[in-house]
Amino acid sequence: MKKGKMDRVGFAILIAIAAVIVVSTVVMLLWNGLMPDLFGLRTISFFQAMGLLILSHLLLRGWSPMHHFRGWKHERLRNLLDSRLSTMTPEEREKFAAEWGCHRSNPPKTDAKVVS
Fold it and tell me: Within 13 A of 52's CA, how many CA atoms are on the CB side?
């Protein structure tokens, strides 16, 4: 690896570690501030808060490493698009690709004629 890329990777790792520390501290403070008074639960330590974050991530986001990068919304949208595209005729697919392949500044052309 080049030195510039190593610097960026090292910086990203430091940022990730700092984010985990900050979020774990926030979870610990919120838990210790609310849960004992509301539900009579014990207070937790920093490492228990970090474990709680990991557990919630595994339970809510899943085990797949790709879910970390894409998320469930992307997967759901992709499945919906695949199911809709599979039921279209080739002409409908071409029309769909032409309409969605353009940018907002260049709206899709329609075949409808304007009647004055």
Answer: 17
